[in-house]
């Protein structure tokens, strides 16, 4: 009996995922543990292993399509085996399986029976969300459509005069006339390229002789075409917009004198110790959060919840976007343990191997742009948190020390706080708590 | 002191058209030339070499005409007479340039130009004394380039560069050509056609390395097999010695020896004495004057065109840039210099090339198709007993756009202009294929090769699947 491959739920917050790549073709043999497909969730790309042995009989969900978790995506069975007429229904998502923490970003597909009551056949891939394919449906007559195609213009730009705004041939002709199509000059290759890319040549500015549209003009048009952002980018966009528009942010900055800490770190390094400045910053934040639990809270506007643990998010910039791996229970880790988990998570993040659960549930976040030569910046609070600390670069600055001018290594840190739970005074106390710790060498001597 | 709107430094194929265009647009124009009007092209390059090649080619045809039912058994040549005709042609053309400049009201200063300021140029005579001072609005530097002869090459009458070679009244019986570039290959073919024993030494892996690989293979095979030229590539020539009766050197383990040697390993820009430092123009590492797309130097009123700006070192590129620079100075509209420049090489057989080679297109990651047609399959080529070579289109697979054209064979340097027109206009292979070409002509080859792109050749058997 054919077995159903489903889109696994890989974490408590995962609701849907897109299949970005099938590693097997229909008809390919599949062994238990083989990677059959790759999915992209709002957090990461993950490889999914087969729990079954046999042949990949059918692919139900093609690459690039987003479906809810537990949606059947394919069948594994014996060659020649008869498949059910309709895809099996989506299983209720009541009991999510926790991903195996030890396996690096590989998850086994849970077993599921194919036989389902006939009534549930109604659940067809109607839930499937197709990749955005331009604007909503256009009503256009076949003649008009053919003419628009031949003239390499976009019918979406034409107003229809037929019933229900249907575009008829006369509308296309009027559009061409109104926009001076007969005066348009375009090179043959440019026209072919525009046709292939579905561009409207009336919307392209020509830079050739006498305003002739040349290939490079069309190429500019192609570059300007809107493209669908990656799933990751879309999620970043949605979450940050929600946070920035829904949370009243305010910002408090202090300068931290890092001169002594840098010297101490160099001393440690010479002794063979691996601690980094980032470790010290994270530890200083964790300690300060324990002193001021209000910074480690979340509000919905009517209630406030103080998190019982410090789960520290550390923003990691990647080429394709941003991920925030979470150091769980950071308040119970030694500096060494903090260093180790931060290191492991950063490597996983860069390799795209973070599991969804390793990217959710942070209670406070640190974003460090120190290596990118910025004096200071402000960060947007991650949903579910009350603050985020933005770390600038450490730079030599002229500062007064005991009434004298000195050059010290200064680092600006900026706290963004949710004003619904955190007031200015609290924010000021918090940033100064972090500052005081970083400037207190005796503290680091005792911790290292 | 005299005042002009535009001053052009150099009267070569870049400078004199620039001066004429500026005058046409109403500017008062001065042109400074330190040697001869017409520059390298007219005096020591394109024109004299083509005059000699016209003779050598015909001689070679005459002595190899048994196949077409002719016999010219006692054919002989008089190199000094060939050389004299060359001087006559050059003289006539040079006179023509002078006449044109004069007719356009352009004042010619004989001497060496040097900037005294951004708007002031001094002209020094042969004696080095300042002969004139020019106050100018804009300046176009068109000072060109000259042959490079590196220091490791001994000084001797037996070792010449192209300019000195053209002054020879007698052709040596054997010749080493150091450098397998355009100049080297043209001289090699010309000398070999007149019976000279020629050895070409090129340090790079092949001669004319910038050309399409198919074209290179065809040329090399013709030079070696039809003209008996020895072509040594991939190794430098070392231990060069100029003796009393010969020049010799080592290429790898092999000793190469000949009566004379021509050095054609590159050209360097002429900027010495221009006083660029006085106006704040810095040359790049190779000594060229950097310019933007509009041929402007770092100084707003000073332009540089042709060989001296380090772009494409071809006379017609310089002419095009010169006209563009003059228009950019004298009109309100700013135009970029043309980027698509065809090249022509007067080897045997001739070569014409424009746009991307197959290799360059692939390196750019373009998805391309090619279409090739052999002259051996073309009626006119067969009738004219000119069956060597082929043409080749390089075409964008998605849009059918013509990206490059390469021709080797009889009249290839003439044929390439049709391809250049088509590529500049961004035509497609389909359109060239549908354009009616005269029959029987060599030009038909472009139409046939365009059909070949789509596998719809009439005069070639379908490819076996």
What structural keywords apply?
heterodimer; A: 448 residues; alpha+beta; OB fold (Dihydrolipoamide Acetyltransferase, E2P); Dihydrolipoamide Transferase; Chloramphenicol Acetyltransferase; six-stranded mixed sheet; five-stranded mixed sheet; 10 helices; B: 465 residues; alpha/beta; FAD/NAD(P)-binding domain; Enolase-like, domain 1; seven-stranded mixed sheet; five-stranded parallel sheet; 14 helices; 22 strands; 32% helix
CATH class of the largest domain in chain B equals: Alpha Beta
Largest sheet of chain A: 6 strands, mixed
Fraction of residues in H or I helices of chain B: 25-40%
Compute the CA-based radius of gyration of chain B.
24 Å
- Span of the ends, CA to CA of chain B: 77 Å
Helical stretch tally of chain B: 14
Strand neighbour order, sheet with most strands of chain A: 10-19-18-17-13-16
State mean pLDDT of chain A (0 to 100 scale).
84
* CATH architecture classification of the largest domain in chain B: 3-Layer(bba) Sandwich
* Multimerization status: heterodimer
Report on the structure:
The complex is a heterodimer of chains A (448) and B (465). Chain A is an alpha+beta fold and 448 residues long. Chain A has three domains: 3-127, Beta Barrel (OB fold (Dihydrolipoamide Acetyltransferase, E2P)), CATH 2.40.50.100; 142-224, E3-binding domain (Dihydrolipoamide Transferase); 231-447, Chloramphenicol Acetyltransferase. Chain A has ten helices and 19 strands. Chain A has helices at residues 142-151, 169-178, 188-197, 215-224, 231-246, 259-270, 277-291, 335-351, 424-439, 441-447; strands spanning 3-6, 16-22, 29-30, 35-40, 45-49, 54-59, 66-68, 72-77, 106-108, 249-257, 297-299, 304-306, 312-314, 316-318, 321-323, 326-327, 364-368, 387-401, 404-418. In chain A, the strands form five sheets. Chain A has a six-stranded mixed sheet. Chain B is α/β, with parallel strands linked by helices. Chain B has three domains: 2-145 and 268-330, FAD/NAD(P)-binding domain, CATH 3.50.50; 159-265, FAD/NAD(P)-binding domain, CATH 3.50.50.60; 349-453, FAD/NAD-linked reductase, C-terminal dimerisation domain (Enolase-like, domain 1, 2-Layer Sandwich). Helices cover 32% and strands 25% of the residues of chain B. Chain B has helices spanning 15-24, 39-44, 46-63, 79-103, 162-165, 182-193, 213-225, 276-279, 315-330, 358-363, 379-383, 412-424, 429-434, 444-453, and strands spanning 2-9, 29-33, 107-110, 112-117, 120-124, 130-141, 145-147, 159-160, 174-178, 197-202, 230-233, 237-242, 247-251, 254-258, 260-263, 267-269, 302-304, 343-345, 351-355, 368-374, 390-396, 402-408. The mean pLDDT of chain B is 94. The A-B interface holds A 187-190, 192-193, 196, 214-215 and B 396, 398-402, 425-428, 431.
């Amino acid at each position: 009996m054919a077995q159903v491959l489903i889109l696994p739920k890989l974490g408590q917050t995962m609701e849907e995922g897109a299949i970005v790549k099938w590693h097997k073709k229909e008809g390919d043999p599949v062994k238990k543990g083989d990677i059959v497909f790759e999915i992209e969730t709002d957090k990461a790309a993950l490889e999914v292993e087969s729990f079954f042995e046999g042949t990949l009989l059918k692919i139900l969900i093609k690459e690039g399509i987003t479906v809810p978790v537990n949606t059947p995506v394919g069948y594994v069975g014996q060659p020649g085996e008869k498949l059910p007429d309709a895809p099996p229904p989506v299983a209720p998502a009541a009991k999510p399986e926790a991903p195996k923490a030890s396996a690096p970003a590989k998850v086994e597909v849970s077993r599921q029976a194919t036989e389902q009551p006939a009534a549930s056949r109604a659940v067809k891939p109607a839930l499937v969300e197709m990749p955005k394919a331009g604007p909503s449906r256009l009503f256009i007559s076949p003649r008009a459509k053919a003419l628009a195609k031949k003239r390499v213009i976009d019918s979406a730009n034409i107003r229809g005069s037929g019933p229900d705004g249907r575009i008829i041939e006369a509308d296309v002709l009027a559009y061409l006339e109104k926009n001076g199509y007969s005066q348009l000059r375009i090179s043959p290759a440019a026209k072919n390229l525009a046709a292939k890319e579905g561009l409207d040549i009336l919307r392209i500015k020509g830079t050739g002789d006498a305003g002739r549209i040349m290939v490079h003009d069309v190429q500019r048009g192609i570059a300007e075409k809107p493209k669908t952002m990656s799933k990751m980018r879309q999620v970043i966009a949605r979450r940050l917009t929600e946070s920035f528009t829904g949370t009243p942010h305010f910002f408090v900055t202090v300068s931290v004198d890092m001169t002594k800490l840098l010297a101490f770190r160099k001393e440690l390094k010479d002794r063979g110790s691996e601690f980094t400045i980032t470790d010290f910053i994270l530890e200083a934040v964790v300690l300060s959060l324990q002193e001021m639990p209000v910074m480690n809270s979340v509000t919905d506007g009517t209630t406030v919840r103080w998190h019982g643990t410090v789960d520290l998010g550390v923003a990691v910039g990647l080429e394709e976007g941003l991920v925030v791996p979470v150091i769980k229970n950071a308040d119970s880790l030694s500096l060494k343990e903090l260093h180790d988990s931060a290191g492991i998570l950063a490597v996983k993040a860069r390799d795209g191997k973070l599991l969804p659960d390793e990217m959710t549930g942070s209670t406070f976040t640190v974003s460090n742009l120190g290596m990118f030569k910025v004096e200071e910046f402000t960060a947007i609070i991650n949903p579910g948190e009350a603050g985020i600390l933005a770390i600038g670069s450490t730079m030599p600055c002229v500062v007064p020390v005991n009434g004298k001018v000195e050059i010290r290594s200064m680092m600006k840190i900026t706290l963004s706080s949710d004003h619904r739970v955190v007031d200015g005074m609290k924010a000021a106390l918090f940033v100064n708590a972090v500052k005081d710790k970083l400037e207190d060498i005796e503290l680091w001597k005792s911790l290292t | 002191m005299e005042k002009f709107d535009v001053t052009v430094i150099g009267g070569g194929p870049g400078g004199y058209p620039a001066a004429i265009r500026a005058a046409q647009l109403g500017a008062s124009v001065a042109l400074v030339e330190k040697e001869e009007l017409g520059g390298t092209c007219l005096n020591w390059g394109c024109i004299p070499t083509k005059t000699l090649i016209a003779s050598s080619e015909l001689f070679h045809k005459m002595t190899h005409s048994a196949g077409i039912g002719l016999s010219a058994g006692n054919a002989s040549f008089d190199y000094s007479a060939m050389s004299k005709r060359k001087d006559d042609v050059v003289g006539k053309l040079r006179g023509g340039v002078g006449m044109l400049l004069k007719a356009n009201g352009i004042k010619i200063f004989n001497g060496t130009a040097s900037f005294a300021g951004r708007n002031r140029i001094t002209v020094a005579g042969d004696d080095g004394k300042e002969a004139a001072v020019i106050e100018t609005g804009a300046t176009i530097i068109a000072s060109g380039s000259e042959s490079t002869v590196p220091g490791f090459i001994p000084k001797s009458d037996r070792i010449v560069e192209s300019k000195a070679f053209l002054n020879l009244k007698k052709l040596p019986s054997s010749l080493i050509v150091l450098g397998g570039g355009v100049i080297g290959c043209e001289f090699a073919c010309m000398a070999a056609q007149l019976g000279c024993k020629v050895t070409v030494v090129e340090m790079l892996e092949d001669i004319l390395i910038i050309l399409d690989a198919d074209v290179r293979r065809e040329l090399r095979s013709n030079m070696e097999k039809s003209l008996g030229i020895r072509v040594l590539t991939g190794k430098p020539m070392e231990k060069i010695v100029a003796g009393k009766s010969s020049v010799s050197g080592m290429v790898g383990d092999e000793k190469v020896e000949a009566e004379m040697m021509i050095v054609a390993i590159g050209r360097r820009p002429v900027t010495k004495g221009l006083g660029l430092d006085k106006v704040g123009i810095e040359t790049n590492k190779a000594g060229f004057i950097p310019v933007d797309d509009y041929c402007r130097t770092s100084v707003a009123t000073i332009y540089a065109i042709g060989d001296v700006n380090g772009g494409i070192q071809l006379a017609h590129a310089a002419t095009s840039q010169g006209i563009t620079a003059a228009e950019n100075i004298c009109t309100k509209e700013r135009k970029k210099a043309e980027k698509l420049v065809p090249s022509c090489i007067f080897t045997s057989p001739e070569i014409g090339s424009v746009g991307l080679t197959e290799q360059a297109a692939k390196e750019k990651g373009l998805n391309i198709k090619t279409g090739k047609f052999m002259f051996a399959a073309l009626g006119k080529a067969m009738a004219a007993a000119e069956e060597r070579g082929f043409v080749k289109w390089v075409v964008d697979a998605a849009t059918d756009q013509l990206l490059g054209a390469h021709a080797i064979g009889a009249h290839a340097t003439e044929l390439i202009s049709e391809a250049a027109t088509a590529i500049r206009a961004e035509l497609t292979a389909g359109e060239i294929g549908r354009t009616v070409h005269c029959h029987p002509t060599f030009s038909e080859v472009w139409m046939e090769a365009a059909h070949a792109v789509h596998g719809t050749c009439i005069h070639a058997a379908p490819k076996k699947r």
